[in-house]
Amino acid sequence: MGSKTMIKKFFQVSAILSLTSAVLLAGCQNKEAQQVASESSPTQQKALEPVNLKYYFFGVSKPGDQEVYDGINKVLKEKINTTVEFIKVPNGDYTQKMSVMVNAREEFDLAFTSPAYLNYFDQAAKGSFVDISTMLPKYAPETYKLLKPTIWDAAKVNGKIYASINQQIFARQSGFNVNKALADKYNFNPTSVKKLSDLIPYLDKVKAGEPADKTDQLYNAQMKNNVFNYFFPSYEWESIGGSDVPGAAKSLDSNPKVFNEYDTPEFKDFIMTLKDFQKKGLIAKDSLTRPTFDATKYMAAPIATLMPGIEETVKNTHKADQYIIPLGDPILTSPNAIATMTAISTTSKHPERALMVIELLNTDKDLYNLLVWGTEGVDYKKISDKRVEPLPGAKYGPAYGWMFGNQFNAYISGTQPDDVWEKTKALNESAKVSRLYGFSFNVDSIKAESANSAAIVNEYRAAFNTGMFGDDTEKKYNEFLAKLKTAGIDKVLAEKQKQVDAFIAAKK
Known about the structure:
Layout: H1 3-17, H2 28-37, E1 51-58, H3 65-80, E2 82-89, H4 94-103, E3 110-113, H5 120-125, H6 135-139, H7 141-146, H8 149-153, E4 156-157, E5 160-161, E6 163-165, E7 172-179, H9 180-185, H10 200-209, H11 227-230, H12 232-235, E8 237-239, E9 248-250, H13 265-279, E10 300-303, H14 310-318, E11 322-332, H15 334-337, E12 341-344, H16 351-363, H17 365-373, E13 380-382, E14 387-390, E15 412-413, H18 420-430, E16 432-433, H19 447-466, H20 473-487, H21 489-507
């Protein structure tokens, strides 16, 4: 749909709906809803009051950011009389920073969310995000039509939708990438890797054979992320009710049983391997304190989501060709279907306008690619209508395409096949579907235990991920499990099992 047709759609739909008995949000939201509804054509859109929105997401700040954001705002101003303040937060700090803001009821409008970042389930349940169930068809009709009802079902909490799902790869298959040139140089066979510890022979050789100043951060430990969860698809596991709070189940079992994923041989092997990585100098010694990392020095890294064309993505990140090592088969789960979403804060004074911005990022291909790729002729050049090439002097991006709107509108580059998005859609359709697909956990009865358990996970995570506990790792691991017990993890697991059982029983 063209941008003019889409804007016309906004106001035509709103005008019709204003004649019905539909109830919109109260207070200032009603004022804006009525104002939008009063318009009937894009030529009258200037009657929309000018608003500025705050949009939070994670990423690394680049010198060219503001120029690109100014270009985006020029378009938004013309189309919906709106400007957006785009605010990047460092990846590892995102959940903590945003949680503090949300708890303090700080005013903002849009934010990236998922089960792993700013826990979608928890924040939706406690009223941090606007219920957009009825607003989506009104203010983002094309976005709503992009996804099948079964995909939207994955976003429901107590039967309601609290964030817009970004169109991207929904099936999940995890893996690793390793530097191709050095793997070839040291005769390393990437197909030999079945688990994290299998990378050690390769990284040991690189550590011994390359200059010391190039080998101080050979493995990307992603210190503050839920890296262990990356490997869930290869175990055929999935998180129940968000990844910060322990509780997982086997996706394909006929009667899934909930367990504490941290109290498993798999997790213990994970942290003991990372302890070895740290002792061998394969992970940066100052991982917990250094402000920045050099992605070009990583000779191996975990990948949360493999997809068609992933080779080009990791090549751009690490500035070198990579071998891709898949683990397991693709699985479609509810947490994976909503792994990247955009929510509207209940502190927003303009939720309808925020949803209009989401609509434009999903439907306006030029606007979307400006946000992802930057400015044509400055950050990239076009090879064809849909293929681009980054320019050497680029000061922006490319940004994470899956973080905003509809990634299937993204330009392709490098070794990505021309039909990469068609292949991605096909993978979404062909993946194994979890028995728990559509399940949504209600945290209400265990809010305190869940919050206490999440706090403990976050207390230990970074040190576990970077092997910083050293020879005390096993001792700290036992301490970690004991603290979870004290926090009430058994009650959390029991409640999760109860709800899973009820969901499975209802399907039979």
